[in-house]
Design goal:
The chain is 29% helix and 22% strand. It is of the alpha/beta class. The relative contact order is 0.17.
């Protein structure tokens, strides 16, 4: 059995309320002790984390690995390497692969392929309907047995509300979670930017906020009828967050996440039609962005995800309206979460809350709780998935600095804080810078 001692690090483990200098002792891939060494412990490897933060490995609620079907955009190997470089040890992948993850065999193959890489843990979402076509339900029980942790429609809204109601009733019977990105199937379809003065001025077709809010009203009505547990993916608007806040207050079993780039950017960042800023849902107004930041703070927003969507040059280096939406994000998740913490600390220096710990919670413990997976905690006996990072070190986002095959992000050229020094998966150092 291999043993590891991580010493002198600032341990931040929000799940267990730890935020201070503590050593970690690891044996057999699990956390053996926190603080002081157990009797007779001898470390095969000692890692000196002086001046560094030691946290649970990051949990990413949306990362498209592009396998199967889109290997020309990215491969499992490249994207799982990107995850390690970003400190991500567990990730949830949506079902919109080719073929769609609607058959147990496909899920088992993806799980097997991911396991042989010996990198991050991959948790697939199964398709809610066959082929994501919104007509007939998938065999959710079989897909769960194959390893799916929930069911989603990715970017394909279900037009027939009866189908969605049946899906939610079925999911509730077995205790499955339905993951939905709220978007009306008709309003804003084909739109490419946030409906507002900027889109009008640039002559871009718009996606109004009500595309999100109408869908939310529908989802909440169906939740009241079915009592199904729903996780809402990548909320983009202030009005949407208000509805979610009310639904949570009412006691509906709902959680939500935001894409980490929506925490920082607005529709103004499209600039002169920058295709790297073409994402789904679109960047919205400054008011919407500020509401997302406040929602992270008050707990309305449960987690941040990278919404990692690698796109190749042929589909990105096009006029804004023709470019494929999506940005690479696995390696930016930590830095952009830290940036939110820094901005918050500057804005409210007297608040007394520890912003760094809050940012870490949103990409570890809180995300793991939403996904219902055993991750995001460094309690004794838990799997030793760990991210060791330097929160103060700065790096510049460039194509060369990204391991992901997708080199497109609106943050190209930005200087960000937070460099991952080591990523440990199940007690093994999987990546070291």
């Amino acid at each position: 059995m291999t043993t590891l001692h991580i010493k002198n690090g600032h341990l931040i483990d929000p799940a267990n309320g730890i935020d201070g200098l503590q050593d970690l002792f690891i044996a057999d891939g699990k956390v053996l002790a926190v603080g002081s060494a157990p009797a007779g412990f001898k470390a095969d490897t000692t890692f000196d984390a002086a001046g560094l933060v030691v946290s649970p490995g990051l949990v990413d609620l949306s990362a498209r690995l592009r396998e199967p079907g889109y290997e020309y955009k990215a491969t499992l190997e490249s994207e799982l390497q990107a995850a390690l470089q970003g400190g991500v040890t567990s990730l949830v992948c949506p079902p919109d692969t080719d073929p769609v993850l609607d058959e147990p065999g496909l899920v088992e193959m993806l799980k097997y392929r991911a396991k042989t890489q010996n990198k991050a843990h991959v948790h697939p979402l199964g398709a809610l309907t066959m082929g994501l076509k919104g007509k007939s339900l998938t065999e959710m029980a079989e897909l769960t047995e194959a390893g799916c942790i929930g069911f989603a429609q990715a970017e394909e809204p279900i037009e027939d509300t009866t189908v969605l109601l049946r899906a939610m009733q079925y999911a509730n019977t077995f205790g499955y979670t339905v993951w939905l990105r709220p978007q009306d199937p008709h309003i804003g379809r084909g739109g490419i930017a946030h409906s507002g003065p900027l889109a009008s001025r640039l002559g871009l077709s718009g996606v109004p906020v009500m595309s999100e809010t109408i869908a939310l009203h529908t989802i909440f009505e169906l939740m009241r009828a079915s009592r199904a547990r729903v996780h809402l993916c990548r909320i983009s608007s202030a009005a949407g967050l208000e509805l979610i806040r009310a639904a949570k207050a009412e006691g509906l079993p709902v959680t939500c996440d935001v894409g980490v780039h929506h925490v920082h950017l607005t529709d103004a960042d499209i600039g002169f039609f920058d295709p790297n800023a073409r994402v789904t849902p679109p960047f919205r107004s400054q008011r919407d962005r500020d509401a997302i930041r406040a929602g992270l703070l008050d707990g309305t927003v449960d987690a941040m995800c990278s919404d990692h969507t690698p796109v190749d040059d042929d589909e990105k280096l096009l006029p804004f309206g023709e470019a494929s939406p999506g940005a690479t994000g696995l390696e930016l998740l930590l830095s952009l979460a830290l940036k939110w913490a820094d901005d918050y600390a500057l804005a409210q220096p007297q608040a007394g809350a520890r912003p760094l710990a809050r940012a870490v919670a949103k990409v570890t413990a809180d995300a793991a709780r939403v996904a219902g997976i055993p991750a995001g905690s460094l309690a004794v006996g838990e799997v030793a998935d760990i991210c060791v990072f330097d929160p103060a070190a700065r790096w510049t986002v460039s194509s060369a600095s990204l391991a992901s095959q997708g080199k497109h992000t609106p943050f190209l050229g930005y200087e960000l804080s937070g460099i991952v020094k080591a990523t440990i998966v199940a007690g093994q150092v999987a990546f070291q810078r």
